[in-house]
């Protein structure tokens, strides 16, 4: 098996999960975003988003700041440096493996 | 009775992207430099007289608009700003050549004003189309 494709097995499963990948991808493009924005972008329920954010925060990938805008409570999330690095590594590994397979190097030999 | 309102879209502070910044910078500056170089090269053909600088006022203002809109694109990632900026520069050059001196700046101002109104209208239309209304029961 190709070594690049073998990298798929070593993917960061914390980011690989589709909902968390959506969250990480959204936050990667932003400096910071609030809970409502993430909910609108990812179409996750409040509970689901909250639990995924908690997992990402626990891993040190996401920083969560609970603050107020006027009298309205606001949960602001951002990717930490560790989170950005993990997302970039994930992206590189995925791109590498997929490009190998799409290029045909994995096509069965005849 | 149902009250129709629209969802709050949330808060997001856009991040800086170096690659994106470079792409926009190249997309804006290279055509502008080429346009200026061509204008200088063919200054006799287009009637560029340095003594009559006011003739080129719309083009210069258009170039400033393009620079400001390019900054807005880099900072906020809003493509329509770049389109309006490019339109204002092209319109500025066109009216400077064709309509100078008297009505040029007036035509430029009304043209760019209409472009901003159209850009705002399209943005509002897209927002209303893409954001589903939420009905609140009272």
Set down the secondary structure blueprint.
The complex is a heterodimer of chains A (110) and B (138).
Chain A: H1 3-6, H2 13-16, H3 18-29, E1 30-34, H4 35-42, H5 46-58, E2 62-69, E3 72-79, H6 81-102
Chain B: E1 2-6, E2 12-14, H1 18-41, H2 43-46, H3 57-76, H4 79-98, H5 104-130, E3 133-137
Antiparallel strand pairs in B: 1-3
What does this entry look like structurally?
The complex is a heterodimer of chains A (110) and B (138). By secondary structure, chain A is α+β, with helices and mostly antiparallel strands. Chain A has helices spanning 3-6, 13-16, 18-29, 35-42, 46-58, 81-102; strands spanning 30-34, 62-69, 72-79. Chain B has 138 residues and is mainly alpha-helical. Chain B is 69% helix and 9% strand. Chain B has a two-stranded antiparallel ribbon. In chain B, helix 3 (57-76) packs antiparallel against helix 4. The interface between A and B is medium-sized, with 16 and 11 residues.
Radius of gyration of chain A: 17 Å
Tell me which oligomeric state these chains represent: heterodimer
Strand order of the largest sheet of chain B: 1-3
Number of strands of chain B: 3
Question: Uncertain segments of chain A of ≥5 residues (pLDDT<50)?
Answer: none
Count of distinct strands of chain A: 3
Largest sheet of chain B: 2 strands, antiparallel
Largest sheet of chain A: 3 strands, antiparallel
Enumerate how many helices of chain A there are, as a single number. 6
Tally of DSSP helical segments of chain B: 5
> Which regions of chain B are unreliable across 5 or more consecutive residues at pLDDT < 50?
none
Q: Give me the secondary-structure category of chain B.
A: mainly alpha
Shape of chain B: flat
Estimate the helix proportion of chain B, in percent: 55-70%
Shape of chain A: elongated
